[in-house]
Each structure stands twice: as C-alpha cells, then as structure tokens.
C-alpha cells in the first residue's frame, strides 16, 4: 500500500514552485484570502524549498547549531485571492550572506489562460543560535548551505516572475 505524501512543489531551474488551493478557512466573510494567510503560504513554500534543496533545518536545530528566524519581511499585496483559486508560490534566492539569505516570493493566480500576480514579498531568513549567555545571535550558515543557495540564485537569474 502506498501512502500519499504532501505536495512539496518542484524546482524549475533555481525557482521553486509550490501549489496552493484557497479553502474556505483561508478567507474572510467576503471570500477573500485573509492577509496573514499569504504569509502562511509563503512559509510552507520556503520550508519545502529548503527541504528539497537538501537544507536539513531540523537536524541543525536539534544539534543546537541554529535555527532560521525571519529578520525582515517586505510584502506588497497586488490583487486579492479568492475562495477556490489555485495559486502558485514562486520562491527564488536573491542574496546570500554569511548568516542570512534573502528569498523573493511571488504568489501567482494560475489558470489555463493566464498568470496573475497576487502578492510579492522579500524575506530575509537569518540563522541564529544562543551564545554562551543564552542570547540568540546570528551565526554563519553552513558552507554547504551557502553553496546550495548561491547555486540556486545563479540558476534562477534567467527566470523572472511576472
């Protein structure tokens, strides 16, 4: 017997594409997606993007080596998403630094005829870990992670979102 697995999205070049359907629970009384739910969609897409890229956040956290925290978020809402819409969250690495990585994310409404930008954001994820006094401080991302992020960034340069 096979067991169904959650959708993790796919990489096309350096761009991760993650499908989302808008359910009733995602909307307000008017059938429009509640603003905070776009952040949930983006978080799920980023988490699966990292997992598919081989970034083992759980192992790193459990080893006491750090955890990602959002250091910055810039978001622009362009058009509302509605009940039953099929959305695609596109994620691409746009900048890699020692302790942080910027990820650009676009949520697109996608149907057979056109793609339409719904929301766009830039997220800065910083790796943090407690210092000797227990205070959370930025720490260097593992070298293999930075190498993976740099490779994804280079691959994504030719693929631009709407």
Explain what you see:
- The structure is a single chain.
- The chain is α+β, with helices and mostly antiparallel strands and 162 residues long.
- It has 3 helices and 7 strands.
- It has a single domain, classed as Thiol Ester Dehydrase, Chain A.
- A hairpin with a 3-residue loop joins strand 4 (86-96) and strand 5.
Low-confidence stretches: none
What is the average of the pLDDT values? 91
**DSSP, total strands:** 7
Q: What is the beta-strand fraction?
A: 35-45%
Q: Output the CATH topology.
A: Thiol Ester Dehydrase, Chain A
What is the distance, rounded to the nearest whole angstrom, between the alpha carbons of the first and last residues?
Answer: 41 Å
Can you write the helix and strand succession as a string? EEHHEEEEEH
- The CATH fourth-level homologous superfamily: Hotdog Thioesterase
Provide the number of structural domains: 1
**Number of contiguous helices:** 3
